Amino acid sequence: xxxxxxxxxxxxxxxxxxxxxxxxxxxxxxxxxxxxxxxxxxxxxxxxxxxxxxxxxxxxxxxxxxxxxxxxxxxxxxxxxxxxxxxxxxxxxxxxxxxxxxxxxxxxxxxxxxxxxxxxxxxxxxxxxxxxxxxxxxxxxxxxxxxxxxxxxxxxxxxxxxxxxxxxxxxxxxxxxxxxxxxxxxxxx
Length: 189
Ligand code: GRF
What we know:
By secondary structure, this protein is α/β, with parallel strands linked by helices. Helices cover 37% and strands 23% of the residues. The chain has a seven-stranded mixed β-sheet, with helices on both faces. 5-O-phosphono-beta-D-ribofuranosylamine is lined by residues 9, 11-15, 44, 87-88, 108-110, 135, 171, 174.
């Protein structure tokens, strides 16, 4: 039996799509059984629909974080989800939610953590004149972009790079890194 994974998105959902594509391999130890978005018109939801994956979309606006997260928790549990993958989910999770899923929530962050936590990583990396950049998959804790690192991928930064060029180079690595890190985590259970 494949492990049941729920993915939380807020936007494009290309990392969610990479997890879905990888999950179709017969030797992949997980399947994506649910996609949740806090942005009801997130482009990634169309991919989920086209692939027959159940979705739940609900705006967080006007709701307390803990109240919103408890609804999400219920939806995940109703779908018998075992692991939660954050894929461009642009919201901090409440400590209560994180505690309930301890060790079973992962995130992908577009930087070589612990460097460059938070947003606008590509611009900040360029501004700092770094020569290396990349992506990190880590276990989610209550702190932003913190928690044990599961896997990293490095890319070079070229002097001619702008944000788009650098983001695209990192994203290619993200799409390989996330499915592999997810599979490794699930296999360890
Ligand atoms: C990715 O760069 C991911 O690392 C970051 O947000 C971006 C989401 O892209 N957390 P997508 O929605 O998966 O295409």
